[in-house]
């Protein structure tokens, strides 16, 4: 596997594959405009680190996006999103990507990776086998209203 930074060079292809994955597999309604904005927002966050994964044939297989967050006692990486594109899941690419991400975060001085995850059996199994656990000292809070 090869890992490159997400840049303007590979941005459009990531956006296309993002839309395809979420609209075909997750019942999303992403457009080029909304997906571009979402990914660009994270890419341009201070201390962002976004990576694209390619297989041995230089085929794009997935990407991660996130950013470093400084706390008083440690530097953490907030994983905003990891996506393994359609046709590439179940091949170990996601597990390999998490391992590579951990190496890069450690090499940059990070001591912790944190993220929000869908709370279902599939996601809990995937992250659990990589050593991640559900935090019991935090609660996701939100408020939604119709416009």
What is this structure's SSE topology?
Blueprint: E1 2-5, H1 8-25, H2 32-43, E2 48-54, E3 60-70, E4 75-84, H3 93-107, E5 112-114, H4 121-129
Parallel strand pairs: 4-5
Antiparallel strand pairs: 1-2, 2-3, 3-4
Helix pairs in contact: 1-2
Summarize the structure.
It is built from four helices and five strands. With 147 residues, it is of the alpha+beta class.
Query: For the report, how would you describe the main beta sheet?
Result: 5 strands, mixed
Count helical runs.
4
Shape: globular
Query: What string, H for helix and E for strand, traces the elements in order?
Result: EHHEEEHEH
Strand content: 15-25%
Tell me roughly what share of residues is in helical segments: 25-40%
Q: Compute the separation of the termini in Å.
A: 44 Å
Strand order of the largest sheet: 1-2-3-4-5
> Gyration radius, to the nearest Å?
16 Å
Structure class: alpha+beta
Instruction: Tell me how many strands there are.
Output: 5
Observed structural traits:
4 helices; 5 strands; 147 residues; alpha+beta; 24% strand; five-stranded mixed β-sheet
Structure description:
The structure is a single chain. With 147 residues, this protein is α+β, with helices and mostly antiparallel strands. It contains four helices and five strands; from the N terminus they run βααβββαβα. It has helices at residues 8-25, 32-43, 93-107, 121-129, and strands at 2-5, 48-54, 60-70, 75-84, 112-114. The protein has a five-stranded mixed β-sheet with strand order 1-2-3-4-5, sandwiched between helices. Helix 3 (93-107) links the parallel strand 4 and strand 5 (112-114). Helix 1 crosses helix 2. The longest helix is centred in the first third of the chain and has 18 residues, at 8-25.
